Amino acid sequence: MLGLPPAIDGLTNRTQTTWPPAIDGVAISCLKLIFHSLLIVEAKTATMILRTSLLLIVAFMATSSIASTSRQTTYIIHMDKTKMAANHSPGSSKQFYEAMIDSITKLSALTEEQGQDKIPPKIVESGQNTVSFQDTGMTPPPSKWKGVCEKGTNFSQSYCNNKLIGARAFFKGYESFAGRKINETEEYRSARDSQGHGTHTASTAGGNLVANASFFGLAKGSAFGMRYTSRIAAYKACWRYGCVNSDILAAIDKAVADGVDVLSLSLGGSPKPFYSDSVAIASFGAIRNGVFVSCSAGNSGPSSSTVDNTAPWITTVAANYIDRSFSAIVKLGNGQSFEGSTLYYGHATKQLPIVYGKNAGSAGAQYCINGSLNKKRVKGKIVVCQRGQNSRTGKGEQVKLAGGAGMILINSNNEGEELLADPHILPAAEVGASAAKSITKYLNSTKNPTASIVFKGTVFGKPAPMIAAFSSRGPSSIAPEVIKPDVTAPGVNILAGWPSMTSPSGLKSDKRRVVFNVLSGTSMSCPHVSGLAALLKSAHKDWSPAAIKSALMTTAYTLDNTRAPISDVGSSNSVLATPFAYGSGHVDPESASDPGLIYDLTIDDYLNFLPGAFRPGDLNYPSFAVNFKDNAPNITVEHQRTVTNVGPPACSYNVQVEQPNGVLVSVKPEILSFQKLGEKLSYKISVVSLKGPTKTSPPSSFGSLTWVSGKYKVRSPIAVTWSWR
Fold this sequence. Notes:
7-stranded mixed β-sheet, 14 helices, single chain, alpha/beta
């Protein structure tokens, strides 16, 4: 899920969210365990999301009632027993029912991510009245829009306009859980954004065109959202210490009732079964009402099976680097030089003494934690600080407070070569693990070590896209029958809007103020896809959310700007990324607007996907996940798909298969001939195991299936996994 605010260390920061079960029997029906009754959930017992990020964006769909009494807030969820599957036993339905209720009355963990937008109104986190939300050239909202701008702390109705057309805050569950009202001297008890996450993601998806945008001269240019003519509605449901599920449920419900078209959810949590996953259930309700839903994949990479938001009706977005970086050069006294990353924009340092660990202070000095640095040992020197324990920009703050002249932030093996640009408050640069080893070796072998830092500013021309190490990976531990994530989009060092009263580093000592900031995370990649979905929706008003998702997936590309396969910064055994890192590939909006064929899905298709309902291979998904439970040869797995012609009325497609290792893939028929627009044709794919992997070889192999007709290449990745080990 999830954007990493500069002040937060730990690439595992990812948007996490609790899920409010969908309303009006929508989401709950997705689990086929809806009861003909009114379920009343008291906000007092609502579960709370523990977040390491301070603000989260919430956007959901649903159509349920919300009621409150003078004594305690109550959310009412309608459930319909007729939607329960016949093959559910009373015991299993009770289990699902209890798990669902528990999800509303329990605490969830939330971190950062981002996203939002759609053509008429859509959803975002908490919006901020910045230049990105000016409504120059925009007409009044469409008549279908039912949303409003709610006034609150430092937020008046005048903050809304023809761009930001709705803003609501949901806090009754949070206050009930905390046992007190929100302290309005510490945060805004309104839709206003004080942390920056919501503003950044909202402007990424649908911010208006702003000329000469930059971060103190870095990344200078015109800034605009992926669909900058879209309107935005903000629904704030996360607060200083977390997010309560009942508030999120109410926000999603209200967003859909207001009339949003696209939901962008830069939030998530640890993977969990769909029946206890609030995002999965609530987003199902949105899909049922024709609302496209995109979610962050999570920031827990590069470990496998960490991907979150894996329900097949959700478009799950990974994060990648772009060809722009913010470079700094660290020069050691022995002549060695290392390239690093930073958002510091001042002059180069002189060649200065450098200190590290015990030479810089007491216990914890290697991490530059609060109070660990000795002013006499640090003053006027460059301090080497290791990642971990406190925030990256917070380390620089400690160095500056101790009188240090600069900082070199070094990665451990866990962070590897991942380089994120942070808005440091003193001259500083982050270097990768290999450079860190050379620097520490130099420190330990030299009596008077020195170093300097030279700041190169904005640099273009890097190979891109590359998958970020922090981006969460498949295969899904919850639904291995589909490849997750679905696609990847830019999520590293992304410039976007920022609250004008909030420091870029999140540090209280940082008195700088900006209207644009640079963040990294799958929170940043998610709104890119949300904005693209809004573009496709405006071009193809009759397309379902599944059709839009299919177009984005089957036209995605897997080669970088050097025409080489997309690489993986987090890979330990191969420089190449796989579908478990990027799904179908990097989104391509131009190709997605004219995909040729689409794989469409109905609500019943999703219902049939649920456990025990049918063969997973029959879900009409735009990718293929093939799972073998042992490594015996000659085992056959069959999948069936149906494609709809959205290209030329009369056309023929020939199949091309890139065979994964260890299997033989065949397709029947090998040619699909269409006679008219909208015609549907089906095919079967058979995957026969030849020889499974050994205990020392990778458990998965990858290939692809592509339908080709002239300019059209409708590509689906194939992931084959042997789980016998």
